[in-house]
Specification:
- This protein is an alpha/beta fold.
- It has helices spanning 34-46, 59-69, 84-92, 108-121, 136-142, 147-163, 178-191, 206-222, 237-250, 273-284, 303-306, 338-350, and strands spanning 8-10, 13-15, 22-26, 51-55, 76-79, 97-100, 125-130, 169-174, 197-198, 228-229, 257-262, 291-297, 312-316, 320-325, 328-334.
- Helix 1 links the parallel strand 3 and strand 4 (51-55).
């Protein structure tokens, strides 16, 4: 059962409580380059990103926030380190949330100024602690980076903000170590009811990072922990969003969109099943409003039976195959007609085809 956390508003979205888990990503453009940043955000929006974060390392980047905000449709989070003035500029320029590590912002007076500004503008602060930013005293106390140290560090910063009468807080405690991340989120979930942003930080390239994130986030989310989620990959942010969607759907935490299942191939396979499955998966990305399962099978012997539980299916043989709908064979196809026939079915189901 999902843990019920307090509700926090981020722009026009609300997280926590019984609200859906939202997908977050981060632009890899220069925030000062408004055109490139906006184009990337619009692409991410189209593919299911709910919240977007941008780096704000300069005053120019903070000033760009207002321009970006006017051209996008999802909440914008400003990511700030070291300089409290950048946090204040970002808030005043329309950021819907700021992400800081109070430990590197400066004195308590500077942190208070940021908190007071955020409170005045009615926006939340995400307290972010990563394994690479753990304070020396905690490293010494716990003998290195540990889940317990990450939790203590995050809660220390939460208590500091609470002392400033600031309570619109989201917490993240990330590590590149999957098991440490799981334990840290389990521990902090027991000690606070603030919404949690979950992820495995610095997970790696698209292939490696997808595996690490799927394992770590799968366990964390299955335990009912998490209100927003980011898959951190070294690559196109679009891959982060698509991966996050698949993780949430696999756990039954997100509805809508198409799930593609495909057989692993064997000696009976007589078509290029790998290429076909990839084409079907690519095609399915354009139909996020549908909620169905497509089976791609490489054998006309077992394919129809294996695809019986799917809404649509293709079972391929030597140069030809079968189109299957709800377990029933509806059409025999030449191999080159697989994708056009499937697209016609999807267009019909989505209302694009009359």
């Amino acid at each position: 059962m999902r843990k019920k956390t307090r509700e926090i508003r981020i722009g026009d979205r609300v997280i926590g409580g019984e609200n859906p888990i939202l997908i977050q990503s981060m632009c890899n453009t220069k925030t000062e380059d408004v055109e490139s940043t906006v184009q990337q955000i619009l692409k991410l929006e189209k593919n299911g990103c709910d919240i977007i974060r941008v780096a704000v390392p300069t005053r120019e980047a903070a000033l760009a926030v207002s321009k970006i905000k006017r051209m996008i449709h999802i909440p914008l989070v400003a990511d700030i380190h070291f300089d409290p003035l950048l946090a204040i500029y970002s808030i005043k320029n329309g950021a819907d949330k700021i992400r800081i590590n109070p430990g590197n912002i400066g004195s308590e007076d500077k942190i208070r100024e940021v908190a007071d500004t955020a409170k005045a503008y009615g926006i939340p602060i995400r307290v972010g602690v990563n394994s690479g930013s753990l304070e020396k005293k905690l490293l010494e106390k716990y003998g290195g980076v540990t889940a317990e140290g990450l939790v203590e560090s995050a809660l220390d910063k939460v208590y500091l903000l609470e002392n400033f009468d600031f309570h619109d807080i989201v917490i993240s405690i990330k590590s590149s170590d999957v098991l440490m991340s799981i334990k840290a989120y389990e521990l902090i979930s027991e000690q606070t009811d603030y919404p949690l942003h979950v992820g495995i930080t610095e997970a790696g390239t698209v292939k490696t990072g997808t595996i690490k994130s799927s394992v770590g986030l799968g366990i964390i989310l299955h335990e009912g922990i998490g209100d927003t989620v980011r898959v951190s990959l070294t690559g196109d942010p679009l891959e982060e969003v698509l991966c996050a969607k698949k993780i949430l759907r696999s756990l039954g935490l997100k509805k809508g969109g198409i799930e593609v299942i495909s057989c692993p191939t064997c000696g009976r396979t007589e078509i290029d099943l790998i290429s076909l499955a990839e084409k079907v998966e690519k095609l399915s990305e354009g139909y996020d409003g549908l909620n169905l399962k497509i089976a791609v099978m490489g054998c006309v012997v077992n394919g129809p039976g294996e695809a019986k539980e799917a809404d649509l299916g293709i079972a391929g043989g030597r140069g030809e195959g079968l189109l299957i709908r709800k377990g029933q064979i509806v059409q025999k196809l030449k191999e080159e007609d697989f994708i056009p026939a499937l697209k016609k079915e999807l267009d019909h189901l989505s209302g694009k085809y009359i």
